[in-house]
Amino acid sequence: PPPPPAPFSMSLPAPRRLPGALLLFLLPLLAPGFYIPGIAPTDYEEGAPVDIFASKLQSTKTHVPFDYYYLPFCKPFELSEKKKIKSAKHLNLGQILSGERYKPTNFSLNMKVDEKLTTACSVVLDAKSASKLTRLIENDYFVHLNMDNMPAVTRNPDGSFTMGYQLGRSSSPASSSAPEGKNKAPVAVNNVLSITVLIHELTPSKAELYQPASEATLHRIVGFEVASRSEGPDGVGGEVLVKESAKVEWKYEVKFVASPIRWATRWDPLLAASVKSQKIQWFSIVNSLLISVFLTGVIASILLRTVYLDFARYNNMENDEDLEEDFGWKLVHGDVFRVPNNLELFAVLHGTGVQLVLISTFTVAFAFLGFLSPANRGGFLTALLTVWGFSGAVCGFFAASLYAGLEGKNKRLVTLGSALFFPGIAFTVFFVFNVILWYEESTGGVPFTTLLILLGLWFVVAVPLNVIGAYFGYSAKPYEFPVRTNQIPREIPRASETPLLLLMFASSILPFFIVFIELTFIMTSLWNGAVFYMFGFLSLVLVILMVACAEVAIGTTYFSLTRENYRWWWRSYGSTACIGIYIFAYCAIFLLGSHEKGEKMHLLSSVIFLGYSFVMSLAAAFVTGTVGFVSSFYFVRTIYSKIRVD
Questions:
Q1: What share of the chain is helix, strand, coil (3-state, %, to 5)?
Q2: Residue 252: strand pairing partners
Q3: How far is CA 114 from the centre of its chain?
Q4: Among 463, 355, 472, which Cα is nearest to 404's?
Q5: CA 204, CA 209: separation in Å to the nearest integer?
Q6: Which of 422, 431, 432, 476 has its CA nearest to residue 451?
Q7: Which CA distances in Å does 87 have to 53, 77, 91, 449?
Q8: CA 347 from chain center: how many Å?
Q9: pLDDT at residue 20, rounded to an integer
Q10: Residue 386 confidence (pLDDT)
Q11: In 3-state terms, what secondary structure has residue 57?
C-alpha cells in the first residue's frame, strides 16, 4: 500500500544572520547603561539634605595646602568633641597627593529651601588660632569647599570664576618687611558666606534611563557659587579683625536658583577658556606648525638633495683612488656603529625615555578623549602613577634590548639602573619635600600609609615588571649593522670637534619654541590653582614636538657625520634632550615673574616649585632625547645600508 501522506507542515525560512559590524553597532544599545563610579548624578527631592564638604585651604602665593580644620572653623555637632576629623569618604591617590581632603562641615542645607542669615557657631580666638588665621590671610589663602562633587567658586566681575573663596583680606596695605606681629596692619576674616546653589529641574521623559519611584520633582545641582565678606555681630560694627580674644561669628545664607544648565554640562562654565586664551592657543599651534614646516623643509633638502647625491657619487666609484680622494660620511663607515661611551647609562636613559613616552601618550590621550574628567577629582595624577607602575616592563625591555643589541656585558647594572634611576630621583625629591610639609602640618605631606602605597607601587609592581621586561630584552640578538666596525678607531679631525654643550643648546632652541606658549598655560594653571583642560591643544603640540625633535636629531647627526665625526650616539640624544634645560630655566623665570615688585617670596613654596620643575624638566629631557636618538639610529642604519662598501 502507498505510504500515508506526510502531515501538513509550513517551514519558515532560516533567519538571516546580521552582519558582524551591525551587531557591533547595536551591542551598546542593548547593554545596560552605567556611570563611572564617583561621577554618577545625584537626584534630590525638595527638602532633601544637601551636604557640603571641606577640601583644603590653598594659596597661589605659598602653594602649601592646609586642612580645613587647621583654622578654628565650626565643627559638625556630632564631631565637635573630636580633635581630628577624618575624611567622609575614601580618596584616590591623586587627591591625597594634591593635598585634598573630604571633611564634613556643619553647614545645614535642604534642597530648594532658602536660608536667611544663620549663625553656625561663635569662636573666641586664642593666641595660636589668631596667629594661624593672620598668617594664612596675609598669604592670600582660599577656602575650597565641595558640594555634590562641584567645587565652590567665586564669580569675578568679568564673568570668570575663581576656585574657592577668599579667607580674608588686609584692612590696609601691610609692610612685608615688618617682623611677625609688629607694625603690621590688622587683617579681617571673611566670616559671612552667601551661598548660591544652581539647580536644574529633572523632567522625566522617554529619554530618561529610568522613571522616578515617586511623583516628586527631582533636582540636580549644576553650580556652587560662594561670595564671602567680613561682617561684625548683628550685621553692624564693620569688619571682624583678627586678634587674640576676638569673637568670630561664622555665618552663612543660602539661595537656590533655577538654571538651564544640564547636569552633563555643568563643568563647562568652569572650563570655558576666554576668547583671548583661545586665540593665544591657536597662535601657539600656528607657531608650532611653522617651525615644524621649516624643519621639515631642511630635512627634506638633506634627504632629497644631499643624501641621494651622496648615494649616487659613492656607488659610482670605480677605483680606490676615488675613495681616497673622497670625503664625508662614507669615510667613517668603519666607526659609525662603534659602541658609545658609558653604554650602561645610555641604555638606562633609553629605556626610561621610552617608558615616559608611553606614559605621556596614554595619559594625554585618555584626558583628550574625556576619560579623565575634572569631575573625577585627582584622576589625572592617579592615572599617571598607575600607568607608570604597570609600564615598568617597557622600561626594562627597551633598556635591555639596546644593551644586548650592542653586546654589553654588565646586564645587572642596566637592570637595576632602569628600575631605580629616574624613580629614585623623583621619589627622593618627593620624600624630602614631604618631610618638610609634615613639619609644617600641611596636607601636602601625604600620610605614612600613602607613602607605603607609593613604595609598594614601585617595589612590588614596577620593579618586578622591570626585571621581567629586562629578561625578555636580553634575549634579543645583537644588531646586524650594514657595515663592519674597524678594530682601531679612526682619528676624528679637530676641525669637526664641535663642543657638545654648544651643539645641544643651539639645536634645542627650535623644539623649545614649539612648546613655549603651551608651557606658559600649563605653568599658569598650576601656579594659580586653576583647572587645565585644554588637552586637545596639548595633544597636537606634543605630536608636533616629537616630529620636530626627530628632524633636529637627524639633521644634527648628518652634519656631524659629514664632518667625519662618528660619535653621533650621545650627540643625537643631547641635541634634543637639552630642551629640559630650557624648560627648567623657563620655570625659574616664571617663578620670579609671578611675584609682584617688592613682594616677599615664600621660600618653602619656591623650593618645592623648583624641585618638582626639575623632575618635570628631567622627564621632558628623557622623552625628547629618546625620540632624537631613535630617529637618528634608523636614519644612520638606512643611509649606510644604501652604499657599496668594499
A1: 50, 15, 35
A2: 118, 193
A3: 40
A4: 472
A5: 9
A6: 431
A7: 9, 16, 8, 15
A8: 26
A9: 46
A10: 92
A11: strand
Distance between CA atoms of residues 190 and 73, nearest Å? 12
Q: Within 10 Å of residue 636's Cβ, how many Cβ atoms?
A: 23
Please give the DSSP secondary-structure letter assigned to residue 66: B
User: Residue 26: what pLDDT?
Assistant: 40
Q: What is the SS3 assignment for 173?
A: coil
**Sequence-ordered list of residues with C-beta below 8 angstroms from that of 452, at least 6 positions apart, any chain:** none
Query: Element (H or E) spanning 169, and its range?
Result: strand 168-170
pLDDT of residue 207: 41
Between the alpha carbon of residue 195 and those of residues 221, 248, 253, the distances in Å are 13, 19, 6
The count of residues in the chain is 646
Decide: 43 and 420 in contact? Cβ < 8 Å.
Answer: no
The C-alpha atoms of residue 141 and residue 144 are separated, in whole angstroms, by: 10
Q: What is the pLDDT of residues 174-201, one digit of tens each?
A: 333 344 444 567 899 999 999 999 999 8
Distance CA 627, CA 353 (A): 8
Q: What is the pLDDT of residue 360?
A: 92
DSSP code per residue over 383-422 = HHHHHHHHTHHHHHHHHHHHHHHTT-S-HHHHHHHHHHHH
Which residues of the chain fall short of a pLDDT of 50? 1, 3-38, 173-182, 206-211, 322-326
- Condensed to tens digits (0 to 9), the pLDDT of residues 295-347 reads 777 777 766 666 666 666 666 655 555 444 445 677 888 888 999 999 999 99
Identify the helix (H) or strand (E) that includes residue 95: helix 93-97
Cα gap 463→168, rounded to integer Å: 48
- pTM score, whole prediction: 0.82
Q: How far apart are CA 416 and CA 470, in angstroms?
A: 10
